[in-house]
Amino acid sequence: MKTSLERIRNDIEQLAKFTSTPGNGLTRMSFSLEDKGAREYIKKQMKSAGLYVYEDAIGNVVGRLEGEVDGPVVMVGSHFDSVKNGGNFDGQAGVVTALEIARVLNENSIKPKYPIEFIGIIEEEGGRFGSGLFASRAMIGQVSRNDLDIYKDENGISIAEAMEDFGFDPSKIHEGIRKPGDIKAFLELHIEQGPILESKGMDIGIVEYIVGLTEIEYIVKGRPDHAGTTPMDMRTDALDIAVSVISKISDFAKEAGSGTVATVGVLNILPGAANIVPGEVKFMVDIRSKDEKCIEEVKSKIEESLLESCKINGTEFTSTEKLYAPPVKLSDNLINKVIKYSDKIELKRELMLSGAGHDAMVMAKITDVGLIFVPSKGGRSHCPEEWTDYEDLQKGIEVALETIIDISKND
Ligand SMILES: [Zn+2]
Q1: pLDDT tens-place string over residues 65-105
Q2: How many angstroms is it from 236 CA to the middle of ligand 1?
């Protein structure tokens, strides 16, 4: 191993100190005191690894290693913000990956052909302003100056105000945009946040697709009536109708295949009293798959089934798509390189899907993207119990290191 387990452990432990909820997980909102502490730590590590350190117009921390040519940059990193009471590895693992790669390149005086930028990204979780994947969207030009006034934290402070507080000029947000061609490749290492790698005894996950997802709200109309005086055959019970369909959704997802998942996580019954027949039921379905056709299949089966059930009961339903993001296929070139370097050090590897969104998904709109997963203990994430063994993290970093050397050296 060229990387240092000790340094990796130290980075994770030092970064863990910048939390507003000590003893109860990592809470680090963007442009907060904790952000400032972590930012200073990351900058210090980058400087001592010989990088030229700057903050871009969005607020990301960047350490740059010049290449032989002034060509497109190879970028490696992840986010350093967290959810409330989250863990010490979500995002941080990828930032530490960037720091450790920079140190190894520096120690070994490795000079890349293409410049490398090591990046700590802000506001991926959207924990403070409710604007998830903020910085990567800003990097590809999807955030306007106006948006910075719209998104506010729970105290009414806008992103623009928070940026100013940190010495950034919101009117210059566009200066942080990276155009297609500016970035040769983007590599992110992230914890899996699920149970697959651990349960299969795998060392590393190589993500082929970040799943597409849709969130649909269904409202089924019934008729509110007295629960005691209305005979069973004279009711239009909205919950009865909804449940007859909801109970089939898991099967619809399994039938669709390709790892498709579907979840009903919201169910509201109106008027919501024990002695009233449900007059209206609202439920939300979250469907995810690597294949848009599978998402469509589950969606149309739900709608056909609802239509049939409503018809029998002489009522109707509405559906509203609240969110849609298409699946993202990651770069075959990067997937093959990650496979090659995993095999070189004999890691047990798994090609997999990412069921969660990542900055990598946004960056894929402008460049080749690779995403490496390392195992999460018990599949836990977004909680204080979140854990990845340092040895497992190091294995992922070794592969990321070789991959970065390769893509920064070759055309
Ligand atoms: Zn994350």
Answers
A1: 999 999 899 999 999 999 999 999 999 999 999 999 999 99
A2: 45
